[in-house]
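[09:14] KT: can someone run the structure on this one? pasting the chain below
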Amino acid sequence: MNLMVIKRFRNELIILVATLFALFAFFYKLSAKNFIEEQKSQIVSSISEISRVNELKKVWKSKSISKKADTFKTIVGRNKLKSFKKYSGKVMVSYKNLNFKELNRVIKNMMNNPFRVVKLKISELSKGSYSMELICKW
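[09:31] RB: done, C-alpha coordinates below
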Protein backbone atom coordinates (compact mmCIF):
# COMPACT_ATOMS: atom_id res chain seq x y z
CA MET A 1 0.00 0.00 0.00
CA ASN A 2 2.77 2.38 0.88
CA LEU A 3 4.52 1.84 -2.46
CA MET A 4 1.27 2.53 -4.27
CA VAL A 5 0.95 5.90 -2.55
CA ILE A 6 4.50 6.81 -3.56
CA LYS A 7 3.84 5.87 -7.18
CA ARG A 8 0.62 7.82 -7.14
CA PHE A 9 2.26 11.04 -5.85
CA ARG A 10 5.55 10.55 -7.68
CA ASN A 11 5.37 13.82 -9.65
CA GLU A 12 4.46 15.82 -6.56
CA LEU A 13 7.40 14.31 -4.67
CA ILE A 14 9.77 15.18 -7.51
CA ILE A 15 8.47 18.76 -7.48
CA LEU A 16 8.88 18.90 -3.68
CA VAL A 17 12.48 17.64 -3.83
CA ALA A 18 13.30 20.03 -6.70
CA THR A 19 11.78 22.95 -4.75
CA LEU A 20 13.76 22.05 -1.64
CA PHE A 21 16.93 21.77 -3.74
CA ALA A 22 16.23 25.19 -5.31
CA LEU A 23 15.66 26.77 -1.87
CA PHE A 24 18.90 25.29 -0.50
CA ALA A 25 20.77 26.51 -3.60
CA PHE A 26 19.29 30.00 -3.19
CA PHE A 27 20.29 30.25 0.48
CA TYR A 28 23.76 28.90 -0.32
CA LYS A 29 24.12 31.57 -3.00
CA LEU A 30 23.12 34.29 -0.52
CA SER A 31 25.55 33.08 2.13
CA ALA A 32 28.37 32.79 -0.43
CA LYS A 33 27.66 36.31 -1.66
CA ASN A 34 27.73 37.70 1.90
CA PHE A 35 30.99 35.86 2.60
CA ILE A 36 32.59 37.31 -0.55
CA GLU A 37 31.41 40.83 0.33
CA GLU A 38 32.88 40.52 3.84
CA GLN A 39 36.17 39.30 2.44
CA LYS A 40 36.19 42.13 -0.10
CA SER A 41 35.60 44.75 2.60
CA GLN A 42 38.41 43.25 4.71
CA ILE A 43 40.77 43.35 1.74
CA VAL A 44 39.83 46.97 0.98
CA SER A 45 40.43 47.98 4.60
CA SER A 46 43.76 46.13 4.60
CA ILE A 47 44.85 47.89 1.43
CA SER A 48 43.89 51.29 2.83
CA GLU A 49 45.76 50.52 6.05
CA ILE A 50 48.85 49.46 4.10
CA SER A 51 48.75 52.63 2.02
CA ARG A 52 48.36 54.70 5.20
CA VAL A 53 51.39 52.95 6.72
CA ASN A 54 53.38 53.67 3.56
CA GLU A 55 52.41 57.35 3.72
CA LEU A 56 53.47 57.54 7.37
CA LYS A 57 56.69 55.72 6.55
CA LYS A 58 57.49 58.34 3.91
CA VAL A 59 56.89 61.10 6.46
CA TRP A 60 58.91 59.49 9.24
CA LYS A 61 61.81 58.35 7.04
CA SER A 62 62.06 61.63 5.18
CA LYS A 63 65.53 63.08 4.74
CA SER A 64 64.21 66.53 5.58
CA ILE A 65 63.77 65.44 9.21
CA SER A 66 67.54 65.37 9.53
CA LYS A 67 67.60 69.01 8.42
CA LYS A 68 64.87 69.82 10.95
CA ALA A 69 67.07 68.35 13.67
CA ASP A 70 69.71 70.97 12.81
CA THR A 71 67.36 73.66 14.10
CA PHE A 72 68.13 72.50 17.64
CA LYS A 73 71.57 73.99 17.07
CA THR A 74 70.33 77.40 15.96
CA ILE A 75 67.14 77.82 18.00
CA VAL A 76 69.04 79.46 20.88
CA GLY A 77 72.34 81.34 21.06
CA ARG A 78 75.66 79.54 20.61
CA ASN A 79 76.77 80.41 24.13
CA LYS A 80 73.79 78.46 25.56
CA LEU A 81 74.44 75.33 23.49
CA LYS A 82 76.50 72.98 25.61
CA SER A 83 76.76 70.08 23.13
CA PHE A 84 75.19 68.95 19.88
CA LYS A 85 75.67 65.53 18.28
CA LYS A 86 73.72 64.19 15.35
CA TYR A 87 74.18 60.76 13.81
CA SER A 88 72.11 58.12 11.98
CA GLY A 89 68.62 59.16 12.98
CA LYS A 90 69.47 60.41 16.43
CA VAL A 91 70.28 63.81 17.90
CA MET A 92 71.72 64.54 21.34
CA VAL A 93 71.53 68.14 22.53
CA SER A 94 72.45 69.80 25.82
CA TYR A 95 71.65 73.38 26.74
CA LYS A 96 72.64 75.50 29.71
CA ASN A 97 71.34 78.78 31.17
CA LEU A 98 68.06 78.81 29.23
CA ASN A 99 65.30 81.17 30.24
CA PHE A 100 61.69 79.98 30.08
CA LYS A 101 61.05 81.51 26.62
CA GLU A 102 64.02 79.70 25.10
CA LEU A 103 63.04 76.50 26.87
CA ASN A 104 59.52 76.76 25.46
CA ARG A 105 60.93 77.45 21.99
CA VAL A 106 63.01 74.26 22.12
CA ILE A 107 60.07 72.18 23.40
CA LYS A 108 57.77 73.65 20.74
CA ASN A 109 60.27 72.77 18.01
CA MET A 110 60.56 69.25 19.36
CA MET A 111 56.78 68.75 19.49
CA ASN A 112 56.05 70.22 16.04
CA ASN A 113 58.43 67.84 14.28
CA PRO A 114 58.20 64.05 13.94
CA PHE A 115 60.76 63.24 16.61
CA ARG A 116 60.51 60.43 19.13
CA VAL A 117 61.81 61.65 22.46
CA VAL A 118 64.14 59.16 24.11
CA LYS A 119 65.34 61.36 26.94
CA LEU A 120 64.22 64.74 28.16
CA LYS A 121 65.78 66.07 31.33
CA ILE A 122 65.13 69.63 32.45
CA SER A 123 66.65 70.93 35.64
CA GLU A 124 66.38 74.36 37.21
CA LEU A 125 69.81 75.84 37.93
CA SER A 126 68.54 79.00 39.56
CA LYS A 127 65.35 81.01 39.46
CA GLY A 128 64.54 81.50 35.77
CA SER A 129 67.61 79.59 34.53
CA TYR A 130 67.33 76.01 33.27
CA SER A 131 69.55 73.33 31.83
CA MET A 132 68.20 70.76 29.40
CA GLU A 133 69.33 67.43 27.99
CA LEU A 134 67.47 66.06 24.99
CA ILE A 135 67.84 62.88 22.96
CA CYS A 136 65.52 62.41 19.99
CA LYS A 137 65.19 59.75 17.29
CA TRP A 138 63.40 59.77 13.99
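[09:33] KT: thanks! The chain has two domains: 2-60, 64-137.
[09:34] RB: yep, looked fine to me
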